[in-house]
Structure formats: C-alpha cells, structure tokens
Amino acid sequence: MSDIPPDLTWERAAPPDATGPGPWIEIAFGEGDDGEAPVYIRETSDPDNVVTTNRRKWDAFVLGVQAGEFDHFVEGVEGVADPADATAPENGPHA
User: Fold this and answer.
1) What are φ and ψ of residue 88, in 5° steps?
2) Residue 58's CB: how many other CB atoms inside 10 A?
3) How far is CA 36 from the centre of its chain?
4) Where does the DUF397 domain lie (predicted)?
5) Pairing mode, if any, of strands 25-29 and 11-13?
6) The dihedral formed by the CA atoms of 9, 11, 12 and 17, expressed in degrees to the nearest 10
C-alpha cells in the first residue's frame, strides 16, 4: 500500500441512516482532474486492500450503475428494492 497517498479523503458509500461498521465501500479521488487521475476503492473491513482505477473508468462505472446495467447482479437478493419500482432522480446522484 506504499503507493497510496496517505492524505486521501475517503468517502463512504453507505445509506445516510446506516449505523455500525459496515462493511461499506469507500472511495477516494487522487490528484488531478483528467481521465487518468487515480481513484482508490477499499472496503471498511479491509482498509489495507486498496484497488486503484482511473477517473475515466470510475465515471463509466457510475454511469452504468445509474443506467441499470448491473441490476441483474442483485435480482432476487433479499433487502434490495426492485429497480423497476423506483423512480430515478432526473439528474441522478453525483460521484
């Protein structure tokens, strides 16, 4: 983990009313604002295990989630709302 900057600001992807330690996914954006700027991803239960990608790939992933491209991964999972029952906000969440 030596190439991971020590001063990153980690953002937890958890519901606003979530309590407890998770596990939750956390992301941090590295320096730069172009498509090659690093994005770091980790799980709260294993913070030393960090996956690195870039902003271009992260943005494509977020757009895919918003478009429902990964909904089939959670079909039938208890506690996950049916995406067809939800109304997406007009502008969607911002990453």
Assistant:
1) -75, 140
2) 19
3) 17
4) 9-65
5) antiparallel
6) 120
Tokens of 20: 């407890």
Secondary structure (3-state) at 62:
helix
- 3-class secondary-structure state, position 7: coil
Do residues 23 and 45 touch, judged by C-beta distance below 8 A? yes
Angle subtended at Cα 23 by Cα 30 and Cα 58, rounded to the nearest 5 degrees:
35
* Contact indicator for 62, 95 with CB cutoff of 8 Å: yes
Q: What is the DSSP string of 11-55?
A: EEE--TT--S----EEEEE-S-SSTTSEEEEEETTEEEEEEEEEH
